[in-house]
Amino acid sequence: MIGIIGGSGLYDIEGFTDQKEVAVSTPFGDPSDPLVVGNLAGRKVAFLARHGKGHRLTPTEINFRANIYAMKAVGVTRILSVSAVGSMKEHLVPGHMVVVDQFYDNTKHRVSTFFGEGAVGHVALAHPICAELAATFVKGARAAGATVHAGGTYICIEGPQFSTLAESRIYRAWGVDVIGMTNVTEAKLAREAGLCYATLAMVTDYDCWHPEHDAVTTEAVIAVLLQNVATSKAVIRATLAGMPEKPACRCAEAAKNAIISARDNIPAATREKLRTLVGGALD
Ligand SMILES: [Zn+2]
């Protein structure tokens, strides 16, 4: 099954048939919403509204662990993520899409690991995005007629406020391409859970470093946002249709050599919490 995490506006995607809500409770709490499972472009898919239906949750309030766990629990192996971002570069124009390949984690108040409570694991994150899935996303975006940039660095801030001007200028000096509040946490947890993860960052506006930032009206930003949602639906359909039947990457093995705790000492309760996520890596 293919997981899709995005805004609740994605649910009414054309051709999404046999929709069924699946409420999943996890050892890490409840996901943002029930998953909506169904068929789309010849695939079994599971949708999740990242902020809950009606956009109820701030980035900090999102239970990212429950969201990723729920995906894994229903049989998802690959996650396509879609999210709105601000642009940190002149050439990444509002309305463009960026299939990012790197992150800088500037979050401050969230748990971004499944490990702990007696089980210590260190997964590799040098390449936090599944390259195969990202390439499929880029191809899908091109097929859907979107202006897409392959690769880019996403800085993830805690939010919910946008950056100050000083912050925005510092991030630019760091060389990042887009700014958002959610994706790095999903990428880290997906890697620990052995899931392929790639994200379509849709540029909504320029962050406040841009000289024209203050002159842009809310109406103009919302117009871009709505257009991006429409484009992302076409991109998702094209991406699903173009996905290889089985991934050839090694994302699923990420946890295999990550756990360094002596197996005998891992408490039974922790073992139980992690079993769905890392399976045989605990044995
Ligand atoms: Zn992968």
Helix percent reads 25-40%
Please give the CATH class.
Alpha Beta
Secondary-structure content class = alpha/beta
Sequence stretches where pLDDT stays below 50 over 5 or more residues: none
> What's the Cα radius of gyration?
18 Å
The fraction of residues in strands falls at 15-25%
The coarse overall form would be globular
Commentary on this structure:
28% of the residues lie in helices and 23% in strands. By secondary structure, the chain is α/β, with parallel strands linked by helices. The chain has one domain: Rossmann fold (3-Layer(aba) Sandwich), CATH 3.40.50. Strands 1, 2, 3, 4, 5, 6, 7, 8, 9, 10 and 11 form an eleven-stranded mixed sheet that branches. Helix 1 (64-73) crosses helix 4 (183-192) and helix 2 packs across helix 5 (218-242). The longest helix has 25 residues, at 218-242. The protein is globular and about 60 Å long. The model has no long low-confidence stretch (mean pLDDT 95). The structure holds zinc ion. Zinc ion (ZN) is lined by residues 130, 132-133, 196, 247, 249, 251.
